[in-house]
């Protein structure tokens, strides 16, 4: 094995062994790269013709990339259940986005309409009902939809509220009785996307039977990260998501589970603890596919503001240790170096006279 090849093999070994951080915060090399004190340049460097490809010494932060398989889906999944008995007479198509004032489904041709709010419908709202925040929530929706002429948005169900309800019922082809029951509306925080339906048109349903699943329109990537690697998944940290079509999009970690779960790993009987990590991505960039496989790249910073070279630039020196070839006008000069942290195909180096921007030779590139 030639000197450069030995250097590359040894450097790759560092990726497995890793780098340790000293008490003073300085990255110490792994055993494979430990060459003792800073070595000196060859006493009498001999310039040689440059026969290999060249790259530059760079300065910056050194990071490792951890790739984890995940799935692209939609956030905030929930199931809508029926609030009364009857026959399903209409259902939305899977993937359809339903906004405020639109029907989620119909029973006996009576639509159940989506309205925005955090408090679920739990009682019939009608003249004489006790005041409450659910009344105000209904009136806010009626105003936004254009039916609340003369209505003061507060916690009281008044005659004006009843007239607004009748106008809304007329518009939706409902019985104009001035009452709003839990079978008439579903309150959710925002518009929803229909996932899958659990019934078909013509099915007979009773109360609390699952009708359809909905999600928000926000895109989300979920990964299960090995628990011993959760230090690289911090809330707010940016990541790269590689889509199934090869396109890469930017994402941001929005949730890291606090409790690890143990599950069978795919392909063998070994078990390992994982933590669920959620990553938000742009809906426009992510497209419309649900449950699509993706790969998430997370970064672990190994060293800050250091000189680095590609691993393939390292040479195993006959006298021991490692070196690089610096390209000068007269040819290539060999410089012995001390190696440090490794990450993403590059290795930290230090040595006499090395500076950012110097050209060095690399093998096979």
Automatic annotation (TrEMBL):
The keyword Zinc-finger does not apply. Residues 1-22 form the signal peptide. Its main location: other. It holds the Pfam family PG_binding_1. Residues 131-183 form the Peptidoglycan binding-like domain. The keyword Signal applies. Transmembrane segments: none annotated. It is found in: Cell envelope. It comes from the Bacteria. Keywords: Coiled coil, Signal. This is Efflux RND transporter periplasmic adaptor subunit.
């Amino acid at each position: 094995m030639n000197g450069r090849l030995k250097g590359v093999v040894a450097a790759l070994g560092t990726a497995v062994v890793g780098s340790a951080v000293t008490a003073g915060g300085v990255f110490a090399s792994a055993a494979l790269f430990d060459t003792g004190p800073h070595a000196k340049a060859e006493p009498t460097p001999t310039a040689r013709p440059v026969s290999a490809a060249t790259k530059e010494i760079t300065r910056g932060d050194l990071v490792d990339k951890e790739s984890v398989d995940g799935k692209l889906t939609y956030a905030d999944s929930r199931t809508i259940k029926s609030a009364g008995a009857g026959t399903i007479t209409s259902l939305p198509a899977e993937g359809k986005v339903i906004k405020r004032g639109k029907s989620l489904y119909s029973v006996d041709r009576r639509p159940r309409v989506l309205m925005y709010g955090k408090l679920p419908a739990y009682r019939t709202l009608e003249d004489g009902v006790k005041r409450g925040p659910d009344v105000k929530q209904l009136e806010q929706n009626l105003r936004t939809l254009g039916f609340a002429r003369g209505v003061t948005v507060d916690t009281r169900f008044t005659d004006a509220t009843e007239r607004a309800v009748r106008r809304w019922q007329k518009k939706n082809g409902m019985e104009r009785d001035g009452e709003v029951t839990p079978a008439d509306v579903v309150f959710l925080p925002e518009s929803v996307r229909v996932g899958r339906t659990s019934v078909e048109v013509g099915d007979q349903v009773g109360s609390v039977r699952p009708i359809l699943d909905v999600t928000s329109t926000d895109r989300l990537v979920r990964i299960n990260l090995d628990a011993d690697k959760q230090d690289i998944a911090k809330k707010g940290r940016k990541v790269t998501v590689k889509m199934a079509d090869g396109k890469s999009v930017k994402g941001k970690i929005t949730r890291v589970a606090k409790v690890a779960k143990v599950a069978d790993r795919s392909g063998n009987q070994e078990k390992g603890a994982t933590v669920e990590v959620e990553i938000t991505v742009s809906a426009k960039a992510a497209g419309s596919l649900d449950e699509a496989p993706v790969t998430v790249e997370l970064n672990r910073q190994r060293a800050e503001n250091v000189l680095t070279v590609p691993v393939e630039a390292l040479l195993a020196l006959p006298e021991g240790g490692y070196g690089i070839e610096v390209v000068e006008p007269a040819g290539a000069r060999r410089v012995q170096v001390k190696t440090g942290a490794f990450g993403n195909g590059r290795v930290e180096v230090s040595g006499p006279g090395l500076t950012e921007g110097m050209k060095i030779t690399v093998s096979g590139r």
